[in-house]
Amino acid sequence: MKTMQLRVPNLHRQRGEVRSAERGLKTQTRRNPRYGSCHTSIETPQLSVVVVNFCQWKNTARLTQQLRRSEAVRRGAAEIVIVDNHSPASPIARRLKRLSGVSVVQNARNEGFARAVNQGGQRSRGEWVLLLNPDVTVPDGFLDHVLETAQRWPAIDPRAGVIGFQLRHRDGSRQASAGPFPTLFRTLAGLCLPRNRRKCQHQALDHRQTVPWVTGGCLLVRRDCYEQLAGMDEQFFLYYEDVDFCRRVREAGWSVWYDPALQVTHHFPLHSRRVPPSLRLITRHALLCYSQKHWPRWQSHLLSGMVWLEACARQSFARWKSDHEGSICYHELRQLVGDVQYRRAVSAERRIRVATRFLEPISTAQDGRTGVESCR
How does DSSP assign 145-203, residue by residue? Predict the structure, then answer.
């Protein structure tokens, strides 16, 4: 019987306190041909932005253009690392590779969100790492404000490891972006709540506060903290990796903060979209992994039984409707329950691969809907 192992990158870089002076950053003066003026360029960036793309090249290009309107990128204080999870070929990818301050990593297959984040973390160099979803849009100068915020945090809380910012819907209303840690009771009780309140909770306060966890859609993490934890747990293919990461951050003695001073627009949160069978399989897999890792064994086993019964019922209904995708995915979910429970990592990954075949149309349908903008 094979055991499920945590596959995380081998990160060996050792760093001291987060002070740019101690890192001995070298600077040089250069002329920016686009802006026609001289400015100070920093050879080693202080802030690294990691964007994981899957079939959303237009959205990724738009976000990249918005980020590059920050002075921090122009002077080299911030860099952008795009990790693509085997999206279809696009000329946008080639244009992004030619941009200064931008690097692109293209995977030969969909490696999942957590593993792609870790790839971006290995490729980046900043003292702080900012995770952004490609379906996020930001105001001009956003990274300048992020960098200013990051530089203030050591004085506010020397053990601040993760900071989450305020998310907004497309209409400007607040979007829940933090919440309590999931428990069996909260998970079951959440079935009686609207989908936008099952996992996250709205933060009523207008000032920064410590929270259990913040969403990975816009998450700033100190590299010292990130490397101490060896990055995100790669057994999570998609979803709950941010909850697990924040939990491990707190257990390691770091703190997690919600700071509403900075805002971004998140266009397509999961709770606002239809959940097709393939996506439901992946979200259930993430919850099963989380429960096995953090809940008492009896609670994890109880959840496994409930998910198995759900998969049986949904598979029967899919067959009755002649739903080919649903029939396949819910059959795989039934088997996946046992794979997670008995730690059959290879088998579990194979079943997730089956579901990922159906994900491309879902992501493609969102591409370009945050606004079309050329990548120059």
Answer: HHHHHHHHHHHH-TTEEEEEEEEE-TTS-EE--EEPPP-HHHHHHGGGS-GGGTS-B--
